[in-house]
Amino acid sequence: MPAHRTIGRLSLYRRLLHALLKSGNETVHSHQLASLADVTAAQVRRDLMVVGRSGTPRRGYNVRDLIDGIGAVLDAPMTQGAALVGAGNLGRALLTFFRGRRPKLSITAAFDVEPAKIGQVIYGCRCYPVEELERIVAEKGIRVGIVTVPASEAQHIADALVRAGVKGIVNFAPVPLHVPAGVYVEHVDVTMSLEKVAFFARQNGLATGPPAEQT
Amino acid sequence: MPAHRTIGRLSLYRRLLHALLKSGNETVHSHQLASLADVTAAQVRRDLMVVGRSGTPRRGYNVRDLIDGIGAVLDAPMTQGAALVGAGNLGRALLTFFRGRRPKLSITAAFDVEPAKIGQVIYGCRCYPVEELERIVAEKGIRVGIVTVPASEAQHIADALVRAGVKGIVNFAPVPLHVPAGVYVEHVDVTMSLEKVAFFARQNGLATGPPAEQT
DNA sequence: GCCTGTGAAGCTATTCACAGCT
DNA sequence: AGCTGTGAATAGCTTCACAGGC
Question: What topology is assigned to B4-74 in CATH?
Fold first, then answer.
């Protein structure tokens, strides 16, 4: 099973490879991809081992082949749907952002409590009342949830998603979610990110600062 | 110098401690905080070593004392300002989210290209034209930038922020930023997060799945 | 008895370094 | 000559396990 962080970087590599293709590159060297992704060349080669598509010495990797190989690792065989819960500012930002971006993975249902939003189609995605979350997610066979509700609601929503059969959650609420074994949670904690950056910005501002870091 | 990940978790612990205080707890054990934060008790104790405030055996840690100690590590001596670039859906979500949340760290200037937004006060934060970014950020002595612009603009904006003296950037654009040594970048890559969750959700859905993980 | 503080062990992730290929 | 693929080495992070204190 591929390592946790490797899977994340493959997602990034694929995006960079698409951009390379668009600018006319048919092949790429590990050190080029590395500098685009801000990692070392050795890291790139190590990550690409799980993809299996070999590069050729001298010429590097074939970009289309790599994109294809990464897709074989990352993408579901059939299109995978995701449910977004909480159609506030952040939820809507995510809806626009992912709109039509990945053919194999898209947000197929949104949920909110606010009556004004129910029934509307927000950026191409239908908004349902949160009371129906469990039924609709289960019926549609959705396995991925995105939580963009206030902290106070996040755990209840996560519980409902899990009951509906969801196996992975991206959590934007500022509290950790507690889920049973077998459910994968990625906590996108923007408060943590900002406080971390503020901290290290201060260290770097001081003359004694450690070498720069990139994450 | 405290470890990278420890700094992030301290931010989380502090939020959980504030919640504990609100619900009447004056003391806390490492295992309680651990289960709230979804880490091990040993991890909590290890992290708290950098804070220096000792707990007492039998009674645990004093919540107010810990909050204070974490503040001594994380917070700037004076209030620290941050600049947000890109007042789109995501930018506005962040403005509402951080509004009045941390007294020592707040978004003090927003920037956008769209003429309609210039001069407006969005969720309590004044919006300036992006042409003035460098001047205003430098004048205000802002050291932290938040990038919520489209991928195509992100690197230019980062360059401008760095020229203006910014030492740390939270990057929400879907491309890595290249910055000189001494500038710390945290890349919040939501595409990566979603694809990662979709991948592991699929693994967990299969009977062969690895044990659940939490991030 | 139960909890903290921490050296030591264990694990995961990254980097080194070089053999092999073209 | 330059690049890939990968075993071995290193670095960083987490957990173990237990001494010390209330």
Answer: Arc Repressor Mutant, subunit A (1.10.10)
